[in-house]
Amino acid sequence: MTLLRGRDVFSGEAVELVVERDKIVEIRPLAASAASLPWIGPGLIDLQVNGHAEGDANAAQPDASQIAAMSRSLSARGVTRFLPTIITASESDIISRIRAVVDACADPAIARSVAGIHIEGPSLSEQDGPRGVHPLAHIRPPRIDELQRWLDAASGLLRVVTLSPHHDGAVEATRFLVANGVQVSIGHTHADEEQIRAVVDAGATLSTHLGNGAHGVLPRHPNYIWSQLAEPRLRAGVIADGHHLPDSTLATMLAAKRDHGIFLVSDAVATPAALRHGGESTVGGGVELASDGALRHVATGYLAGSVQTLDVGVATVARITDSLATAYALATHAPAAALGLPALWQPGARADVVQFEWAPGDTEIHPVRVLIAGEPATV
């Protein structure tokens, strides 16, 4: 049995958490001053992680060690479950990267933190702006035979596919994926409202980093951002790293989607030492890490993923909304609901727990203890 004490991130009250094996047994009130305790809450859940630190889901030579490295470094940031996200590439490269995740999950410690695989592309917009830094040479319409080969390689781990509804075959692909237990997310698109509605009718349920992967200049209305904001059947992922969305835009999206689904993602990428000093990223190619922490493609200036993780996202939204509880829910309960995971933070739930320090004005939360399915992670 493990006992953890803290200030409940949702209620603000002092609580004692009772953990047995991999489950939360009880969350009980504690007769102590909450102000003297660290914050405590469920583990963060990130549905879009291209890589982190030395680990890379898009490595040129993919292997299980890349995913294991992501798991270790993300857990130190309070992320207890994540979707390694594989971006646009040749089919053979995508398959190799899928297999690396599957191989990594042969280790139970890694399988506890990998909630599945997210494939972002290759059926995205071919237009500059919406395409972002995805390689144009590998943009292609969806094909059912290729999707089936992904499913075969993924051994049940494929959970989300991001595509653009403008492609011929997008509706058919959406139906196929949904029938095979995969959620379809709209992203990197220039689709019109009718095309968006068609894939939603076919079963699409998510929007990928809404507000990014877009043209620099859009029609006032309608446009594909408004269409997705207004669609109650779409839950939207948003990047709250201080670079991808201005505060006012993020606040508006949070308000627009609060009744029908919004959650935080990091869109984090691998940042090995060679990249931090200027180099080639597996997401975008030649990039530069600016002094303000933004990672940008050298030639176009487009953002090439993020170097920040959900610990920053939580603090960013807490500042914008003046509510740590709201921000924390958007990085835990909301992504869990979007992915269809069991309920968190109640007796019987998996013991994914983070104790952390945070005060108003902090730019990130600071984990001091992390449990993943009841097992301690290195912080």
From TrEMBL:
GO biological process, one term: N-acetylglucosamine catabolic process
Pfam families the UniProt entry points to: Amidohydro_1
Residues at the catalytic site: 267 (proton donor/acceptor)
Residues reported to bind substrate: 133, 212-213, 220, 244, 303-305
Positions contributing to Zn(2+) binding: 120, 188, 209
Transmembrane spans: none
InterPro entries, alphabetized: Amidohydro-rel, GlcNAc_6-P_deAcase, Metal_Hydrolase
Record note on cofactor: Binds 1 divalent metal cation per subunit.
GO molecular function annotation: metal ion binding; N-acetylglucosamine-6-phosphate deacetylase activity
The organism's place on the tree of life at top rank: Bacteria
Amidohydrolase-related domain span: 42-356
Keyword set, alphabetical order: Carbohydrate metabolism, Hydrolase, Metal-binding
Cofactor(s) demanded: a divalent metal cation
Family per similarity comment: Belongs to the metallo-dependent hydrolases superfamily. NagA family.
PANTHER family tied to this protein: N-ACETYLGLUCOSAMINE-6-PHOSPHATE DEACETYLASE
Protein name according to UniProt: Amidohydrolase-related domain-containing protein
Provenance organism: Microbacterium keratanolyticum
Lineage: Bacteria, Bacillati, Actinomycetota, Actinomycetes, Micrococcales
